[in-house]
Amino acid sequence: MAIRDIRIIGDPVLRTPCAPITDPKSKAVRILVEDLLEGVDMDGRAGLAANQIGVSLRAFSWNIEGEVGYILNPVIADLDFSEYQDGDEGCLSVPELWFPTKRAWYARVTGIDLDGHEIVVEGEELMARALQHETDHLDGHLYLDRLSPKLRSKAMREVRKIMEPTKSSPSSSFFSK
């Protein structure tokens, strides 16, 4: 499999809620999962949602502390808001930028595997952050949406600076000054 290009902020696929997977045993879904697993199995990648590689289906992969996996049709089942984490968060679709993003300390998602069996994925700290971040992607949201209005405004200015139109950046046409 070839590693697919990452869609960058401004691409409409990132803002479109993803459709549920209706046939997890299909060849197309199996190829998607292979691509997600291959795409996340790289240094500096904690998660990869299907829409980040241009596929508007509910699936993501993760690579947290040496554990690589995937889930189809994930839904947040539980978030523990009794304790928060407020660390810097980044995103492959918002390159080069990191901002403090408040997330629940613990998260649990439910979904299915390629055989259609229900699975549960849960974790604290970085795993919880990844589960929330990737599920947000599938709902058409970026982590920037979770920032305070003042910080989000700053972040969007930074995004515009990084994505200024250049001859070598075709995706920059999504931004206006």
Describe the structure.
Keywords: Hydrolase, Iron, Metal-binding, Protein biosynthesis. Belongs to the polypeptide deformylase family. It catalyses: N-terminal N-formyl-L-methionyl-[peptide] + H2O = N-terminal L-methionyl-[peptide] + formate. There is one protein chain. By secondary structure, the protein is an alpha+beta fold. The chain has a single domain (12-171), classed as Peptide deformylase (Peptide Deformylase). It contains three helices and seven strands; from the N terminus they run H-E-E-E-E-E-E-E-H-H. The protein has helices at residues 27-40, 125-138, 149-162; strands spanning 47-49, 59-64, 67-85, 88-91, 94-100, 103-112, 118-124. The strands form two sheets. The chain has a five-stranded antiparallel beta sheet. Strands 4-5 form a two-stranded antiparallel ribbon. The longest helix is centred in the first third of the chain and has 14 residues, at 27-40. The radius of gyration is 16 Å and the shape is globular. The N and C termini lie far apart (38 Å).
Low-confidence stretches: 167-177
Percent of residues in β-strands: 25-35%
Give helix and strand order, one letter per element, not per position.
HEEEEEEEHH
| Net shape | globular
**Describe the biggest sheet?**
5 strands, antiparallel
Q: In terms of structural class, how would the helical and strand content be classed? A: alpha+beta
Whole-number mean pLDDT: 91
Look at the structure and give the CATH class.
Alpha Beta
Measured distance between first and last alpha carbons: 38 Å
Overall CATH architecture: Alpha-Beta Complex
Number of helices: 3
Number of domains: 1
